[in-house]
Amino acid sequence: MSTTPTDILPVILSGGTGTRLWPLSREGYPKQFWPLASARPMLEETAARAEGPGFLPPTVVCNEAHRFLVAEQLRGRGARIVLEPAGRNSGPAIAAAALLAEEAAPGTVMWIMAADSAVQDVPALHAALARAAAAARAGRIVTFGMKPTAPETGYGYIEAGEALPGLDGVRAIARFVEKPDAARAAEFVAGGRHLWNSGMFVATAATLLAEFERHEPALLAQVRAAVAGAKRDMDFVRLDAAAFAAAPSISIDYAVMERTQHAAVVPAAIGWSDIGSWAALWEISGKDAQGNVAAGPAEIIDSRNCYVRSEGILTGVIGLQDAVVVVTDDAVLAMHRDRAQDVKTLVDALKAKGRKEATEHRRAYRPWGHYEGLIMGDRFQVKKILVRPGAKLSLQKHFHRAEHWVVVSGTAIVRRDAEEILLRENESVYLPLGCVHRMENPGIIPLVLIEVQSGSYLGEDDIVRFEDTYGRA
């Protein structure tokens, strides 16, 4: 059998928030947008594994709030970006992708995967995919079962059944097993029949839709209505909000895989990890002679088996063992590696106390670039703003604040009421309270400026937009 997949539609699910990788991963900028397992962001790395001969342009299902991040990271790949108006788990997301795939090309084989997993052996992955695609064309819904390398308690397991006749390397599924305790996980690994459930699936759109109709008809009806009422907005497919929100919130595992008679598994050893915790990231990362991983400006002395990551501030670690230390510009996490699954508990506690650091980074990303707070005072704040070449902010005004813009690098065209002003490096403009204004970058390098705000209220919701290139209200 050829080990090259053909006519495969990659479907990338990018709706997760990666809470267990706080403080790096947060709801506003979750782990799939960060470079964790390589120099490329995980979403981009995932898409790169599914491009070239034999692959169709990808479909990405994502949180509406992340649409411009997805578009930017997948620029040039021809991706169709489907926007979830509300999180309803993987079942409705996959049903929407299947309906769109069937509409475009009946019989399409879909390869469904999360945006935030790591794979070290891509040729082995493609060989497994070719076997799975053959089974999918024969009417199977196939998942990839990862051969365990340790008694991992953070994964669900699949007990593999008999080999399926005529389908090389494909086996029936005896049963799915929830995340086990340590003793049971050790039994699974020793027994050799159990595989990690990777959460990747391969099936034709027609097979998936038939199984949704059989097992979750109410879900399929709502998602069908959401697709029928979808609006095309630039490069995005914006599902009908009311119809999609009314779909049951259920995973593809519970909706279909554990109920269908067509489930199958391809056992594979591809160096897979879902990078579901800092401990998992330590496991797959390159280590020094003492088992330490250092990412960013970090100095580690007399320590063993530690993961130390800094996003900018020099971080020193002395005399620790099996520790995780993660430093961002506004938060620090320090813990024993064995407690990696408890980070979510910490994030929940921060949310309960109303700490914005639980969900937001200091740097906020926008379709035109990003900004970050530098100084916050009484009735004033200072921000650093970056505008991408060719991008522009909305035409807007504020009721409670005035602004002063100073160009650090690049060139800006500023509209201030009826005026149009060209600003170069080290030049500035004052925008009085209530004036209608806009800034754009006409150049070929990023525009960087310092914004000083002053006024009685400095919240981001004090914006009245009159015109916006990106369709924001």
UniProtKB/TrEMBL annotation:
It comes from the Bacteria. InterPro entries: GMPP_N, Man1P_GuaTrfase/Man6P_Isoase, Man6P_isomerase-2_C, ManC/GMP-like_b-helix, Mannose-6P_isomerase_type2, NTP_transferase_dom, Nucleotide-diphossugar_trans, RmlC-like_jellyroll. Residues 354-468 form the Mannose-6-phosphate isomerase type II C-terminal domain. The keyword Nucleotidyltransferase applies. It catalyses: alpha-D-mannose 1-phosphate + GTP + H(+) = GDP-alpha-D-mannose + diphosphate. Pfam families: ManC_GMP_beta-helix, MannoseP_isomer, NTP_transferase. This is mannose-1-phosphate guanylyltransferase. GO terms for biological process: GDP-mannose biosynthetic process; polysaccharide biosynthetic process. It comes from Neoroseomonas alkaliterrae. The lineage of its organism: Bacteria, Pseudomonadati, Pseudomonadota, Alphaproteobacteria, Acetobacterales. Residues 10-289 form the Nucleotidyl transferase domain. Residues 301-350 form the MannoseP isomerase/GMP-like beta-helix domain. PANTHER family: MANNOSE-1-PHOSPHATE GUANYLYLTRANSFERASE.
